[in-house]
Amino acid sequence: MATDSERLTTDYCGLKLKNPVIMGPCGLSEFRQGIRLAREAGAAAIVMKTLCTGTNIVRRRPSPHFALVSTGVGHYKSTSLYSYEHPNELEPDEYFEELKQAKKEAEQSHETFPIFASIQCFDSANGGLSTWQNVARQAETAGADGIELNLSLPMGHPTRFLGMWAEGEMAKIVAAVKEVVPKTPLIVKLSSQMSRLLDLVLALASMGTYAFVCFNRIVGLDFNISPNRSPAIMHKYYAGYGGAWTLQSYLAHVCAIKRHLAEKEISNVQICASGGIVSGEDVVKYLLAGASVTQICSIVYLEGYGAISRILKELDHCLKSRALTVDSLIGEGEKDVLEQDQIVNEVSPKIAYINLGLCTATEKCKCKQSCPRQAIDVDLNKGKASIKSEMCNGCGLCLYLFKCPHEAFGLVGK
Ligand SMILES: Cc1cc2nc3c(=O)[nH]c(=O)nc-3n(C[C@H](O)[C@H](O)[C@H](O)COP(=O)(O)O)c2cc1C
Ligand code: SF4
Ligand code: SF4
Questions:
Q1: Does the pLDDT at position 165 exceed 70?
Q2: Fewest C-beta in 10 Å: which of 92, 240, 329, 386?
């Protein structure tokens, strides 16, 4: 049985981490004060907000640049954090001074607290690849424990990073940076909005990438439909768009990437999952899918740095109660996910039944409208529902969508 400290520890990019929760790059990891708060809340490491060497258009932030967008149907609600917060406004010298000072503070408190730099130089007016190289060298000199190449920005560089050149550009950047800082762990942060994601991962993995951060938020847009207001919200441009709802989509991608790497027998490249984590259970799911570590961001905006401690507590509880460790979970769920041609074996036709002993049909009952095949009848006079078995295809909506207050529905083999 693992001890309390063993349960959460793991390795990432050759570093020993005390747990798998890293504070991701954003406005909360921009300055040493925020870095300290994340460290004190228990984060295992931090990635500083991306340093950008681009023009003012890329680096300046409009005001306001945050909105909460809520959507909902009936009682099903979803919230998204919508924001346009371009990379760090600091100059490279200021950025790396901040990194050095944050490292010094961690050392003074006798803590091992890896700090990763995040850089993004594709909008540089002059140097192109040499700007990436210069900034990477500076990161290494400043003592960064690793360098995240942010090739994922949701607001992106529309002409170069959306479309056919993207993969080639990325490979050139990774090769150029690797050449000048061969020993510093190089991590590539990806967007899920790529057309050839798996090929890209393989190509970049073969170039010495230590890990992939999967993923940044997606590109979003929202409109205001109130009268007398201009429709496009905030600064009237696309923005980063994310929320807890991204988790399932990103889990699928992480799982597919993990499998693809395994199929090609690449075992030394790690996945750091980022997107939609709001609880310790979410961290567990990403580990199961194949991530070695995770990053969190939006939930810390919504709840404060205390979210880090809460998530860690939940994670610890979840593992302890099952006598598991972080390392024992990595990729275990991925093994359980079938290939599409295998799921045929899992399909055994079923139909729904109603336990009439539990059914007390009333006007409030919604099971009839939940059925897409009109297979359910509700007889209010008899106070019972029934199923036309010849019309039922066992879809399960009556069980799982409009739940019967008495849980009267079940599925049986046909
Ligand atoms: C306000 C804000 C600013 C962000 N800034 C950066 C950034 O500078 N660099 C970067 O790589 N990711 C940035 N991100 C993306 C996050 O690091 C993270 O990948 C993404 O939000 C998904 O994780 P989450 O669902 O936990 O927020 C930012 C996210 C938010 C919400
Ligand atoms: S919702 Fe449940 S109790 Fe109501 S009619 Fe349907 S099966 Fe019966
Ligand atoms: S399983 Fe699907 S088709 Fe069958 S009764 Fe329920 S909702 Fe209708």
A1: no
A2: 386
Please report whether residue 342 resides in a domain. Answer: no
Confidence of residue 5 (pLDDT cuts 50, 70, 90): confident
- Which of these three, 314, 336, 358, is where a domain ends? 336
Q: How far is the CA of 94 from the centre of ligand 2 (A)?
A: 65
Q: Are 370 and 301 found together in one domain?
A: no
- In this model, does residue 159 exceed pLDDT 50? no
239: nearest Cα among 216, 215, 220: 220
Name the closest-CA residue to atom 5, ligand 2: 361
Residue entry with tokens 């007390």: 360
- Nearest ligand to residue 361 Cα: 2
Map residue 137 onto helix, strand or coil. Answer: helix
* Judgement on whether residues 197 and 250 belong to the same structural domain of the protein: yes
pLDDT over 80 (residue 149): yes
Beta partners for 189?
150, 213
Same domain (yes/no): 380, 324: no
User: Residue of the nearest CA to atom 28 in ligand 1?
Assistant: 26
Report CA(94)–ligand 1 centroid distance (Å).
21
Does residue 353 register a pLDDT over 90? yes
pLDDT at 91 over 70: yes
The pLDDT tens digits of the residues spanning 303-332 come to 999 999 999 999 999 999 999 999 999 999
- Residue 48 is encoded by which pair of tokens? 């500083």
Number of domains the chain contains: 2
Q: Is the dihedral of CA 217, 103, 36, 316 positive or negative?
A: positive
**Looking at the structure, do residues 212 and 288 belong to the same domain, yes or no?**
yes
Nearest ligand atom owner, CA of 382: 2
Question: What residues have CB less than 8 Å from 1, skipping those under 6 apart?
Answer: 323
- pTM, to two decimals: 0.93
* Distance between CA atoms of residues 38 and 200, nearest Å: 32
Is residue 296 domain-shared with residue 383, that is, in the same domain?
A: no
Choosing from 370, 392, 397, 406 the residue with most ligand 2 atoms within 8 A of its CB, the one to mutate for a pocket test is 406
CATH code, 38:
3.20.20.70
> Is residue 155 predicted with pLDDT exceeding 70?
no
